[in-house]
Amino acid sequence: MKLLRIGIVLVSLMLLAMPPVVEAGETRVEETDPSFVWTQYWDSANNAQIAELLGVPGNLSGGTAKGTGSGADNVEITFSGTGIALIHLTAPSTGIAQVKIDGVSYDDIDMYSSDTVFQVKTVIATDLTNTQHVLTIICSGQKNPASTGHGILIDAVDVSAPFPAAFTVSDLTISPATVGVGQSVTITADVTNSGDLEGTHTVVLKIDDVVVENKDVTVAGGATENVSFTVNKDTVGVYQVAVDNQTGSFAVFRVTLTFRDWQRNALTNTSIYYGFSSGQETNYLGTTDNEGKITSDNTELANQTIYFKTSDGKCTGSTSMSAAGGKVTVDLTEKTTLTFRDRQGNALANTSIYYGLSSGQETNYLGTTDNEGKITSDNPELANQTIYFRTSDGKYAGSTFVGAAGSEVTAELTGVPEISEFPILWVVAAVTIIAVAIGALLLVKKRK
User: N or C of the chain: less Cβ packing under 10 Å?
Assistant: First the structure.
């Protein structure tokens, strides 16, 4: 067996089999690769030959290895990368290997161990320039004093090289999300290089699936750079944004509002105020033109329910606004003022009033009167109807005709007798009738 040239003494060996370990970023290169150039005295062995020789299963990387016991035998391994480790055997009868990279000597490798171990990994260098190098392993002919031989067995090398640049795009930001016509939108994203080497990535901006701009971003290994685009659009609408695999959207807003009264007549030359809840219409929107229209780029209105009122407070209403605006018609209802009094003409102040469209059906809450007995309402259901009213305690009730929206109406409510009063009235009536009858009988007797 040619492996005997290595000089391994196989007496009472305990064999330790170690699994191949290849770290992230490393590439294992077996000794059979053409990058290994051997001098003439190296002998090959496989796991079957190792098993025959040692009497136990071999665990060579790739199933084969080469060994020599001849002093000054060497192997040259050409590789490209920043680091390299030697995969070899250690045993009680192996010697010392000399190591060089690009002709520069590195620490010797003592391959002696008290037990036989496969696939021992010895790191030789980790800080080489990322270019081509030549590793030379030389059988020195020397050994550890405890070793019984000076041969060496080479199994493979692990070559480490930096990861190439690899890019991901994240954290897309679109600001502002809603703009007026012609206003600028800033679109930014982060470009991260998860590799070790610097690289350049072309970031592609698409609007509505159409490429509008490309930018080359150079990013160092392990670093992140921010890329920014600025766009503006002159057309109202919602625009879809894509930056590589990141997506979003922005809206270009402009709205033309047409204001009408409850009869659908244009509210021309009228100042309009708005707010975001009923009764809070304090923001000036503008003054309608001769067609009752106001055009606005105010992005505050987008995606909101907006409440409106005229400057005199007589007309109010609301509408929901889309992200892009567009053309919207708003029908404002004129407020009707109702004054509630009792039969004596006294104001029914601070009184809750309910209404209905027929007597006995006053179940709808109208409101609570003020100190003058008044309630102002923009409820269009009240217009051009006979409306029936009652107070919340049921003591007063009445009806009146309410004309067109915007009118002022006085409703006189009559006191309603309580149920407990009816028996007394019947008694009084009966007594009166009896008294009249008795009086009539007495009168007849006197005449006789």
Answer: C
C-beta of residue 138 within 8 angstroms of C-beta of residue 72:
yes
- Averaged pLDDT for residues 99-107: 97
180 has a pLDDT exceeding 80: yes
336-419 topology per CATH: Immunoglobulin-like (2.60.40)
Q: Measure the CA–CA gap between 235 and 254, rounded to whole angstroms.
A: 9
pTM score of the predicted model: 0.60
Report domain 167-250's class.
mainly beta
Sign of CA dihedral 290, 296, 302, 307: negative
pLDDT tens digits for range 11-53: 333 344 444 444 557 899 999 999 999 998 899 999 988 878 7
Query: For the chain, what are the domain ranges?
Result: 2-160, 167-250, 253-334, 336-419
Do the domains 167-250 and 336-419 sit in the same CATH topology, yes or no? yes
Quick: pLDDT tens for 281-302: 999 999 999 999 999 999 999 9
253-334 topology per CATH: Immunoglobulin-like (2.60.40)
Q: Which CATH class for the 2-160 domain?
A: mainly beta
Q: In angstroms, rounded to a whole number, what is the distance separating the alpha carbons of residues 442 and 448?
A: 10
Instruction: Please state whether 292 falls in left (phi above 0), alpha (psi between -120 and 50) or beta.
Output: left
